[in-house]
Amino acid sequence: MFDIYHYAGGGRNWGDLALIYGMQCGLQNAARGRPLRFINLDLKQAIPIADDTVKLINQGDMLLVGGGGLVMRGDGFSTDSGWQFNISLPNLADIEVPIVVYGIGYNNFPYEDPLSDQVWEHLRIVQNRAALFSVRDQGTKQVLMQHGLKDMDVIPDPATSLPTVDTGLFLGDCSLAVGVNWAGDRQGLRSKGTMEDDIRAFCSLLSGFLETVEGSKAFFIPHVNYDILAYEYFKKCMPGKIENIIDIMPELWPESFARVPLFADVYSKMDLVIGMRGHSLIIPFGQGTPIVGYGQHTKLDFFAAETGAQVIHHAEHSQGYFNSVLQRSMSERRGNDGVRIWAEANEALVAFNRRVVGVLTG
What we know:
Elements: E1 2-8, H1 14-31, E2 36-42, H2 51-58, E3 62-71, H3 89-93, E4 99-106, H4 117-129, E5 132-135, H5 138-146, E6 153-154, E7 176-181, H6 187-190, H7 195-210, E8 216-220, H8 225-237, E9 242-244, H9 245-248, H10 260-268, E10 272-275, H11 279-286, E11 291-294, H12 298-307, E12 310-312, H13 319-333, H14 336-361
Parallel strand pairs: 1-2, 1-3, 3-4, 4-5, 5-6, 7-8, 7-10, 8-9, 10-11, 11-12
Helix pairs in contact: 1-10, 1-14, 7-8, 7-13
């Protein structure tokens, strides 16, 4: 039995749960029957890895850090490192087991102050200490190397490789199901406008697109409670044209680790997904569903560059442009290139998981 202390996001976000699920399933598969036990450390709690936790970690076999967009400030609190790996340099030096940094991403928001020099110094020291150090896209790699880090592995987010369990989701006589995720938090860091104005502009374009396909309908897919609050604006702007997945399948909420394969299946049932959150693109991409990013966050552009997807940055485009991006995304993702990109990403993830297990087994 190998004990892995896994430092990652907690259970308030479907994206965090999905990537943890994907990581742990992938590593168990790579272990080929050798038992792994994961002890989860929740980075969403305002508690640094201090002396007592270091002692526990050192009784195990590995400290696994990631994945997800950890290269950002603490979630509502300051950290000992300046980014989400909340450990001081003295405590980091006391870690005796191998450290593996797994597919982390740059996650600073478009209207947020730049990260401090402390972050980059800490990341450089972590990389030097780590047995393996990987990021989730080439964009993150470029940012980190611009701040003095060495070359590193690039692997896909493990939420691209989720198993599914059929939900039996019935969408009626809908001819085209468009999944929509809207990030309902950090409005001032995402946009210069108000949320209501931003949603109104988006709904105008989405309604215009739906009118081009008879029998089409939008389905709102929230990832956290903040997103559910944003849906109230959608109901006002698109009455009868959009429905909340929560109202169709209330049994899927609140978010839970055990239901991740069911949540992934919801995305697999869509014909197209337009998303603001990173994992609102990552999860459906892994299910073969066409995707379009919406918003100004860098991580959307980074993921699009990896997958050939497209991102609409503002609602100030013409209806014709909006429609053409959505139509092109559906045709391209279903083609041979989309299948090839996913297959290559999955192969890279499997290979990295084997290397992680190799660190454990020597």
